[in-house]
Amino acid sequence: MKQWMARLACRAGALACGSAAAQSGVQTYGLLDLNVVYASNFSSPGGDAVRVSSGGMNTSRLGFRGSEDLGDGLKAVFQLETGIAVDSGAADTPLFKRQANVGVEGRYGRLVLGRSFTVVYDFMLAYDPMGYAPFYSWAPAGNASGTSRYGMTLAFDNMVKYSGKMGKLTFGANYGAGEQLSTADSAKGGIAVNYAGGPYSIVATWERANGNTAAPAASRGAATAWHLGAMYSRGKLKFQAAARDYRLAGSAPDVRARLYWAGGTYAATPAVTLAAAVYYQDVQNVTADTDPVMYVIRARHALSKRTDLYVTAAHARAKNGRVVSLSREDAGHGSNQLGVLAGIQHRF
Questions:
Q1: Residue 292, helix vs strand vs coil
Q2: What is d(CA 331, CA 348) in angstroms, rounded to the nearest whole number?
């Protein structure tokens, strides 16, 4: 009798667990990306370096996401994600600084609150041939060697973010509360729209990030940026081109920077993908314009659906003897830089 009751309890528990699993779930996921990289002019003109680095094609990360079925096509969603430096095992960001949000998703779109990547970041990703690669893409932030990165705002704290779809049109908007004495101080906002029809896609985005009012009569200042992009995809070939116009108001004079990029990918075989891109940044209203340009090529070999080997080479140069950096995370130390790396990436 006791054995029969125990078996019944186990079966009831299994059924209950199965029912709960059907209604909700939590997924642990991550990406590990390590490479060996050579870079010229890394610490000073002529100061070359060889390093083992975390994040070649993508930033290494660890995350948790999940959902709960609320009925009638509606579900609750959440995401927590942190960056990790795999070369040292240290945290690459404060805990869950990449993503920390909760919200709802249904037939009318997705709405989340918390910290998240901006809709500009989300929508422009598909239009960068290098996919925002730390080694190497200037699409998110431009060349890092200037006094400002002249780029898009990657993520907001205190965000309300919405995204939806209607036929071939995808759209999104977000607002980040500044949480200052003035509601406009440090407030951020953005909108994005994408149209995909057949082999063609086009995108347009706009964002604004307010500064703080330094004094009662002072100007608040703000950085604004818009993007336009186009993509053609047919069979094994994909071509992307985009432009960003960035303006930093409140400085003397206002800084204006335009970034242009173009490139594409080609699936040479089911396992091998080739990518190439060129980025050019036109900086205005600053002394001795840098106007840097970068050329990048990459070969990627898929060992499986989750593991890739890759080799990347890039060269950047600047005008007027100004410094330039291939990586948007590293300062420049010479008017040109060459980088070559080989790495492995694994998703789980």
A1: coil
A2: 32
Three-state SS for 63-115 is EEEEEEEEECCEEEEEEEEEEEECCCCEECCCCCCCEEEEEEEECCEEEEEEE
The burial class, CB within 10 Å (0-12 / 13-18 / 19+), for 97 is middle
Please say if the pLDDT value at position 22 is more than 50.
no
The pLDDT value recorded for residue 5 is: 36
Give Cα separations from 258 to 85, 246, 293 (angstroms).
Answer: 31, 6, 12
Full DSSP string of 165-221: EETTEEEEEEEE---SSSTTTT-EEEEEEEEEETTEEEEEEEEEEE---SSTTS---
C-alpha to C-alpha distance for 254 and 29, rounded to whole angstroms: 43
Q: Coil, helix or strand for 119?
A: helix
Note the pLDDT tens digit of each residue in 188-213.
999 999 999 999 999 999 999 988 76
Cβ atoms of 259 and 239 closer than 8 Å:
no
Name residue 80's beta-bridge partners: 64, 100
Rounded Cα distance, 144 and 124, in Å = 19
Tell me the average pLDDT across 220-231: 91
78 in Cβ contact with 66 (< 8 Å): yes
pTM of the model: 0.88
